Amino acid sequence: MRLRSLGVALVATAALVTLPAPMTATAADTPLSQGRTATSSSAENASTPSGNAVDGNTATRWSSAASDDQWLQVDLGATASVTRVVLDWEAAYGKDYKIQLSQDGSTWTDAKTVTGGDGGTDTLDVSGQGRYVRMQGVHRATPWGYSLWEFQVFGTTGGTAPGGACDTANAAQGRPASASSVENAGTPAAAAFDGDAGTRWSSQAADPQWLRVDLGAVRDLCGVDLNWEAAHAKDFRIEASSDGQNWQTLKSVTGATGGKVSYEVGGSGRYVRVYGTARATGYGYSLWEVAVHTGTTGTPPVEGGGDLGPNVIVVDPSTPNLQQRFDQVFAQQESSQFGSGRYQFLLKPGTYNGINAQLGFYTSLSGLGLNPDDTQINGDVTVDAGWFNGNATQNFWRSAENLAITPSNGTDRWAVAQAAPFRRIHVKGGLNLAPNGYGWASGGYIADSKIDGTVGPYSQQQWYTRDSSVGGWTNGVWNMTFTGVEGAPAGNFETGPYTTLDTTPVSREKPFLYLDGNEYKVRVPAKRTGARGVSWPANAGGTSLPLSQFYVVKPGATAAAINAALDQGLNLLFTPGVYHIDRTIEVDRANTVVLGLGLATIIPDGGVDAMHVADVDGVRLAGFLIDAGPVHSATLLRIGTPGGSADHAANPTTMQDVFIRVGGAGPGRATDSVVVESDDVVIDHTWIWRADHGEGVGWETNRADYGLRVNGDDVLATGLFVEHFNKYDVYWSGERGRTIFFQNEKAYDAPNEAAITHDGIVGYAAYKVADSVNVHDAVALGSYCNYTSDPTIVQHHGFQVPVKSGVRMRNLQVISLGGKGQYRHVVNDTGAATSGTDTVPSKVVQFP
């Protein structure tokens, strides 16, 4: 590891020999780049990611792989007039490099070329416009890669587009406001935005203090008017932010004299803040009114609503040749495991007789009633494994939802593996979860469903059922888990496969599309606490959103259009398709719904992260797949912002039927697949998968170190499937985390024990709770090994946790699949070793 002291020494040396001394940014001059999304061609390791170079912390750094052609870029979030770039090099610096600008992140213009650089701090005057700014390395000065403590971009952003104008209307009037403090109850923050010059906000008598307003969406900002009371600011800043946490300075004012004053600004943001640093009087800060003016560029707004696109097939009982429609899609999708076809069948309320809807890959079937019994199928909804010679272990990526089935022979067949949810279904008969012939099967998930007859899992290795009712449940192989299920079998994990909890601690059903008369709406169910049984037909406590409040995303849509829709306050409804995006989808507004139909698939291009969710209340992510792109992404999905600590217990963000794939459809790479930074998030059914088969598969070809990293507190996972990552599949560092049901296989392709040995331990645990955690609770966890590249590997344990009274692990098991590798222990150094080829679980009922 290279030491910062060496970098400091080189900086000092550079300062002695380089004249004149470089300009540095003033303390109040916040870089446009700080806290923005950064990406790079590579990272040396997981502790030196791209984001370290724009975090404002000179003790963290980005470093690249050890080759010349490497780059680091930052997305400023809006087009900027760039005037200066500052590079704070670590000891491993660039000798020759370019600073480049781009509007779209694809086409680049050279703004500055540096040759013969000597490291230290490079302050470069540049001139040009772009949303993206890049350091393109040409030649390194050392054998190591390129390494930057900080990469800072200065200039101005936003304003109005050419030909635009500054709106005279006050975009802040009546909007939600907050402040660092108030003098008393009669001077609240809202009084500065009520349009009444006779009411005011005033703060406590201390420095600093701030007042901010939420405009409701990111807007181009062009002017701010301030009407100060006698207690005015002498020195202050006007700032903007897209997320309410990371701020950029629009105007820095010193020596102000108060009164009424207007400022022209250039930038963009959803939040605008007046940040006082020095008062002019002995009182606090006091403002009669604040007005914010936004740009009018003539660009039409993104329209909500509209048709659902070509791959959504809407039918009713009178639709001609309906069986043929099902059969045609099934013939195309039956074995198309990594194809690009995506389909959603929507069945209007009514009774459908004699139908057998066979579901292949990327095919979803949903009823359009408010309740499952509104859409009746007298027939079958079938998943079988004839395409794979009766083996159901690869029946992924399909779903059924919100309808009733009266099976033609009394029992419906649903022989699925991972990523195949069965939600809000009323089966008026039995349910068979095994393929015809009872071949291998590895599923699965049921929620909010009622099965009148018996559920037969037969060959299913594991299954999780939540908030449902069953007429009975026969047998099971290794891990059958039930929470809040009426009719569930009694728990018997010590001698059998069952873990049964009477209720689910926190749940909220997935949003779903339905018809209210002839109008499409999305139902957003309410949170349930201590749930047992189905949520319908009462559907109590939820809300319904008209389709006009959704941007209906169709194939060909750009990330820019998607983000513009979000900035406007629209929700997202992804129609079936594959979406390549060249910038991160930014979900910044509380209660935003992002819903996919037909396993809509998002692929990040150029190394960007696929999606970021701000640290806000109640975002619903549901029903889509994120597929890693061939250029390495730092994180595919991030929920919350690093360091966020807001309390979301009353209205948590939920992630439901959101699936992650790295490789399989082609090479894909990412350091982290999902990172949860927010508190109180509920993860309700996910499959996070580093591919073990398909295209672009290999220990380094589809490298992904971590499946799920949880840094937020009070996070709950129900139905957690995570498999095959190069390091930890799950790494949990937040406090008071809870997991109910976990299914895992270790990476098949680990080349040998040396490749997975760390800290003197052979193998990364499938589920690790960080040593710093004091309280954690997990139940019904299974990890399986199938080390096909080196069957002699003996993994030390499946689970690793700190031994503390507040850390409780129950019903754990590890299994060697056919003797291809073994486990020495179950958890830490506890639990018997696996052995032989008989796939017999080694269990620990409670730890410690």
TrEMBL record:
Keyword Signal annotated: yes
Entries under InterPro entries matching the protein? BG_Antigen-Binding_Lectin, FA58C, Galactose-bd-like_sf, Pectin_lyas_fold, Pectin_lyase_fold/virulence, SACTE_4363
Q: Which residues form the signal peptide?
A: 1-27
Coiled-coil region: none
Q: Which CDD domains match?
A: GH55_SacteLam55A-like (cd23669)
> Which residues belong to any copy of the F5/8 type C domain?
20-156, 159-295
Q: List the PROSITE patterns.
A: FA58C_3
Q: Where does the record place the region Disordered?
A: 28-62
This protein's UniProt keywords: Signal
One Pfam family from the record: F5_F8_type_C
The superkingdom of the source organism is: Bacteria
Comp. bias regions, Low complexity? 28-50
> What are the transmembrane regions?
none
Name of this chain's protein: Discoidin domain-containing protein
